[in-house]
Amino acid sequence: MKIGYLGAGTWGSALANLLSEKGYDITIWDRNLDLIDTLKNREKHPKLQIFLSRKLKYTKSLEEAIEKADIIIESVTSKGVRAVLNDIVKIRKKLCPIVITSKGMEQHTGLLFPEIALEILKKENMDKIGCLSGPSHAEEVVKNLPTLVVASSFDKNLMTLIGKLFTTKNFRVYPNSDILGVSFGGAMKNIIAIACAISDGLNFGDNTRAALITRGLHELKKLAPYKGCKKETLNGLSGLGDLLVTCTSTLSRNYRFGTLLSQGYSKEEAEGKIGMIVEGVYTCVSAVEFGKKNNISLPISEATYRVLYENLPVADAVDFLLNRVIKEEHL
């Protein structure tokens, strides 16, 4: 099977490496031409600091990567998802299955990435859209540490194919037919992770982090039905699982970003220090806009948004959350 892999960042490279070790024919493309040169020269991946499989092939031509591919896997940034899907449609006269592994919501439209794919690929190609999501740090996947994730699709056969494609002894893939719910959990957890990191950076302790994770999951469940998602999906790997790993680990760039904010860095300064796209910064705008549109209160997301985009001091954001009227807990 020939696979066109789009995105050579940490997550893309980790998954491409896994697939290559399984024997698949992988050609990787990325808009960062310097990164492609580095990987072509068989140097260490600059962010993962490891040597990837020597069986991997690299190209600077998107057309070369996908023209003869049996399946396309996408791991680009949130901002690049729509553009790369548009490019695929222009290049491929006959579409093959496309697996989305990026996590996020599009700014201002509030669309999840499978919804963007459906808009671009059209309803007649719905059976070719799938996704992979769940609690999975690239740094641990490349070390072959036990990892459990979720595969989903609008089509049951493609969902099964994705599971078979990625599953190894230590990388277990569970099917879940709620593709919007799977994608939604992966998008929203990054916002809560930024809030948890700010809390940890201020030394508020385990009690506060537990509260933020629990109430953050409640925010996800309040918003989920308005996105056509099943609430119960958020109890699984792509919801609670991804939320826990992102809110508690320094391997998460969203968590590291929030820690920098707690130390007094501005949004721009913190992003510069991370050196990669911080998806929660991008998704936060969409979540808050969608919440306001549907008159849904999302206090943690709103407080995070105000810190990021309205220069609200983190101490004031804490006061904003702690001074809210206490209401009965509804689950």
Written account of the structure:
Strand 5, helix 5 and strand 6 form a beta-alpha-beta unit. The protein has 2 domains: 179 residues, NAD(P)-binding Rossmann-like Domain (Rossmann fold, 3-Layer(aba) Sandwich); 136 residues, N-(1-d-carboxylethyl)-l-norvaline Dehydrogenase, domain 2 (Orthogonal Bundle), CATH 1.10.1040.10. The chain is 50% helix and 11% strand. It starts with a strand and ends in a 9-residue tail after the last helix. The protein has an 8-stranded mixed β-sheet, with helices on both faces. It is of the alpha/beta class. Helix 8 runs antiparallel to helix 9, helix 8 runs parallel beside helix 10 and helix 13 packs across helix 14. The longest helix has 23 residues. It contains 15 helices and 8 strands.
Low-confidence stretches: none
Give the oligomeric state.
single chain
Strand content: 5-15%
* CATH topology heading of the largest domain: Rossmann fold
Which class best fits the helix and strand makeup? alpha/beta
Mean pLDDT across all amino acids: 95
SSE ordering: EHEHEHEHEHEHEHEHHHHHHHH
Please, what is the CATH homologous superfamily of the largest domain?
NAD(P)-binding Rossmann-like Domain
Which features does this protein show?
50% helix; single chain; 8-stranded mixed beta sheet; 2 domains; 331 residues; N-(1-d-carboxylethyl)-l-norvaline Dehydrogenase, domain 2; Rossmann fold; alpha/beta
